[in-house]
Every structure is written in C-alpha cells, then in structure tokens.
C-alpha cells in the first residue's frame, strides 16, 4: 500500500476537489470551475448583472472546505477558503473607480508620465524600453485532449457523443468568452482570447512589437494567463507573462494616453492581474521568486493604506474626498492587503516555511473585519498548518478557538476539522465518521466523499473505497468528474486489480460525454 503522505493528500495536492454546495447566487468565475468555489479568475466573470470586463475588481480566490495545503498554488486551501473573506471586506465596498484603479508607479515611470502630461498631445514618443510589448507564443489553437483520447481509445464512433463548444461556436467577443468558461471549455476560451488579442496587434509573433493597450485588452490578457495557469501550461504561461513585468511600464497607466483618457489617474491593469503576475513564478516551480514579487506588491499596498490614513490619495498626492469615501477606500485596500498576505502564505507553504505561514495567519485572524464564519476559517487554516508541523496539541487548540466563534458546533467545517485531527492521529475510522456526518450536511460536496474513500483505504477496505467513489460519480457525474477524484479512483483501480484499463476507459467515456475540454486526461493514468 502506498504511504499516507502520497495517498491521503491526493485530495489536497493534486487537483483540489470542489465544494459545490455554495448557493447558486454565488458570483464570479469560481462558480464555473469544477474544482474550486472561487478562484483568482473571479474577475473574468463578474456578477450576472454586470457585463464581462466592464468593471475590474480585486481578485478573489477561495476554495473548498478542505483542499488543504499544497504544492500547487492554484489548488490551496487558503486560496479558496480565505480570499473570499478578504474580498468581502475589500472589493464589495462602494469604492469608486479612482480608488480601485489606483497604484503607485516607480519614480522612472512617474517621470515619463509627467513628461507626457506636460507635452502637446501626439508630440511625445517614449523609448521602446518604456513600452509593454506582449504577444502570443502559441501558434494555432489548443486541441481538445479529451476528444483526442476518446477517439484514440474508444474509436471514432464515440465522437458523436462529444458535444462541447469550441472558439468558433460562440460570438467572437467577451460574451462568447464567458460562455466558454461557464461550460468548462477553457482550452477553447484560451483560443478565443488569442483571436481577440490579435485584433490589438498582440497575436502570435508580436512580442517586442509596439501596440496600444486598453483596459479591455489587458483584461483579455488577464483572462488568458489565468486560464493558462489553471490548465498548467507552464511554459506558455511564463513566456507570455514576461513582457508585462510588474505592470510598471508607463503604457500601463491611463495618463499615457491623454487623447483617450485625459487626466484620468490610475492603472489600466486591474489589481487581480497585478497579483496574478506576482504569483506566476510559483506555478513555474519558482516559489521564492513569487514570494519576492508578492512582498513588493505588499509593500506598495501598505504604502497606499498609509497614504489614505494620512488623508492623501493612494499615490501620496492631494486628493479631495469625503470621510465616507476615504473609509471605503481604506477598506478596499485593507482587504487587498489580506488577499496578498494569503498568497504569501501559500508560497510559504510551498516552501514548507510553516512558521511564516502561521505567523501571517495569526496576524490576519486578529483583524476586526472578519465575521464569525470567516474567523473560524482562519483558525481552521492555522490548525491545518500546525498539523503539517506535527504540533497536534496546538492545532487542536486552534480548532477549539475556531469553534467558539461559530454558533453551530456541528457544522460541516467543524466536522471536517475534527476529521483532519483524527487523520493526524491515524484514527481513520473516527475520521471517516466525521467526514460522513459532514457529507450528510453537504451531500453535494464531492471532497468529503473523496476523504471518506481515503479513510476506507487506510482501514483496509479497498473495495468499499472504490464502490464509494464510483457511486458518487454515478449520482452526479457533472460534479464528480474532477481531476483529483479521477486520479484517486484510478489509483485505487490499480491497487484493486491488474485489469484496471476497462474501468478507466469507462471514466474516459463519461468525461467525453459530460465535461468540457479542461480536464487533464493524464489523471486517468491510461497508457498511450
């Protein structure tokens, strides 16, 4: 039998199972991603009554109740459970665009922008070194790997059951992009962003070629890079993100284009894009670089908060606003500060710097803007990091502190935490019972079923574990067909029998019929 670290954490480290029990009114792209409840891509699909790309907001990235700590920055417990709380005290406030778009450029960028502002329109031509010149590195479209695998293993006749959208099946605009994302067709969505960016002169082979930027084009880039990160296309992600640097070139600010935006201040790139670019090295196995990037972002955010509290504008300039507007702006940026800190925690966990992670989480939990449920999530996160450290008693104390802040002692989060405590003490039957009770409260939460199956495995009930996961897939294939669960069940098939190919092909058949193009078929562990 595989060791506990490699099997139990499949639900944590590999692909993050979703808690699909969130209310249908939940907004943001997160509600369309099968293995997250919220993600950094929340800005791509805003609330239903707001048109896509219309109004940038800060990013969010919360996730299921137990997606624990992981090596994959796109799949961490903190990215999912805490960032939602951070955004509730930041981007859901009534701050105006002038505060949402605010950023402090470097001194060099300030000089260039000041020169443009004092020049006759059209007479100032910045050097190439002051320009952001992105372009696509992918020539052609990404293919539908699920379709290709189904044809390879199941034959051409299986293709008649494949009914998913492609980039050519939707309107060639943001609405079409939204449709692709909603249906889980992320590869097709990436293909569509490529077509739309080509209109801006930023298509294939256009890196290092000057082009104009708008909030719309930058939002398209944010969408594309976020989806590339989601699909783990690391090489393309790294190469296409490089031209943006840290979004500090003068042409990333409205005042670079006085003929279009007049004297409008601020950054054309949304805060979520800035944060994503800082995090990208972590996706590329460079967490220390990401950590450095995040601390630079954090430093600027802290300076902005300091300026606002002194009565100045975000950039330190004199700006007239009412006390209410000032308070809203401070809440916005304090929430963004929390969001950056959560990303720092995720990098610290990747680096196994658990002490740093605990210190930051404890500092966050002392904030006054959290409601009882959010505070419980923070305490729970601290406990899970302490479990990684092996400090069971300290973790138990944090779990207890979290329980005190929540009225219902038997809610699913509490039961899940108790299950994790039991796992840390190798009490797998007790853990199973806790996850089962939580599953009764949240019957659609696939993550809990997955954890129950893993507990059965460690109790020597391999066949029961397989049956439990298969039953979950039969009950709800749309929600159940997630990479983490598929990888787990295929691992169990291999432990259960030497004839594991047929049940794996059955899973491929279900993928082909029920899911979009975003699932990595490698999770089925089929040999080509």
TrEMBL record:
SMART domains: TPR. TPR repeats lie at residues 412-445. Transmembrane segments: none annotated. Pfam families: Coatomer_E. GO terms for cellular component: Golgi apparatus; TRAPP complex. The keyword Oxidoreductase does not apply. Keywords: TPR repeat. PANTHER family: D-ALANYL-D-ALANINE CARBOXYPEPTIDASE, TRAFFICKING PROTEIN PARTICLE COMPLEX SUBUNIT 12. This is Trafficking protein particle complex subunit 12.
């Amino acid at each position: 039998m595989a060791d506990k670290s490699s099997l139990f954490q499949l639900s944590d480290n590999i692909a993050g199972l979703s808690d699909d029990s969130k209310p249908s009114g939940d907004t943001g792209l997160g509600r369309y991603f099968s293995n997250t409840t919220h993600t950094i891509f929340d800005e791509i699909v805003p609330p239903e009554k707001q048109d896509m790309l219309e109004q940038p907001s800060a990013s969010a990235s919360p996730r299921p109740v137990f997606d624990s700590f992981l090596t994959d920055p796109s799949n961490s417990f903190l990215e999912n459970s805490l960032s939602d709380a951070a955004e509730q005290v930041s981007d859901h406030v009534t701050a105006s665009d002038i505060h949402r778009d605010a950023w402090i450029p470097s001194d060099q960028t300030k000089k260039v922008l000041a020169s443009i502002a004092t020049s006759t329109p059209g007479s100032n031509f910045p050097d190439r070194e002051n320009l952001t010149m992105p372009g696509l590195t992918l020539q052609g479209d990404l293919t539908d790997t699920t379709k290709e695998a189904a044809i390879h293993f199941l034959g051409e006749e299986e293709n008649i059951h494949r009914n998913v959208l492609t980039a050519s099946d939707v309107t060639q605009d943001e609405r079409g992009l939204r449709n692709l994302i909603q249906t889980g067709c992320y590869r097709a969505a990436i293909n569509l962003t490529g077509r739309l960016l080509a209109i801006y002169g930023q298509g294939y082979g256009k890196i290092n070629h000057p082009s104009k930027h708008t909030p719309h084009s930058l939002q398209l880039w944010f969408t594309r890079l976020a989806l590339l990160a989601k699909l783990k296309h690391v090489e393309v992600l790294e190469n296409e993100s490089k031209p943006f640097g840290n979004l500090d070139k003068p042409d990333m600010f409205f005042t670079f284009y006085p003929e279009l935006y007049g004297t409008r201040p601020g950054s054309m790139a949304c805060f979520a894009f800035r944060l994503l670019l800082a995090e990208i090295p972590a996706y590329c196995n460079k967490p220390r670089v990401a950590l450095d990037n995040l601390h630079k972002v954090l430093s600027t955010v802290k300076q902005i908060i300091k300026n606002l509290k002194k009565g100045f504008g975000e950039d330190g300039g004199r700006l007239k606003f009412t006390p209410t507007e000032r308070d809203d702006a401070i809440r916005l940026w304090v929430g963004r500060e929390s969001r950056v800190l959560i990303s720092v925690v995720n990098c610290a966990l990747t680096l196994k710097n658990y002490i740093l992670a605990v210190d930051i989480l404890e500092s966050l939990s002392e904030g006054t803007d959290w409601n009882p449920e959010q505070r419980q999530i923070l305490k729970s996160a601290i406990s899970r990091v302490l479990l990684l450290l092996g400090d069971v008693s300290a973790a138990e104390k944090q779990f207890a502190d979290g329980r005190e802040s929540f009225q219902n002692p038997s809610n699913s989060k509490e039961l899940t935490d108790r299950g994790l405590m039991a796992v840390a003490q190798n009490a797998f039957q007790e853990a199973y019972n806790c996850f089962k009770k939580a599953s009764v409260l949240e019957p659609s939460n696939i993550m809990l079923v997955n954890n129950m199956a893993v507990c059965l495995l460690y109790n020597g009930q391999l066949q029961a574990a397989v049956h439990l996961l298969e039953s979950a897939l039969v009950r709800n294939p749309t929600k159940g067909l997630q990479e983490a669960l598929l990888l787990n069940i295929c691992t169990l098939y291999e432990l259960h029998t030497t004839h594991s190919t047929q049940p794996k092909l059955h899973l491929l058949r279900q993928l082909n019929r029920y899911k979009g193009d975003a699932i990595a078929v490698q999770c089925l562990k089929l040999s080509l």
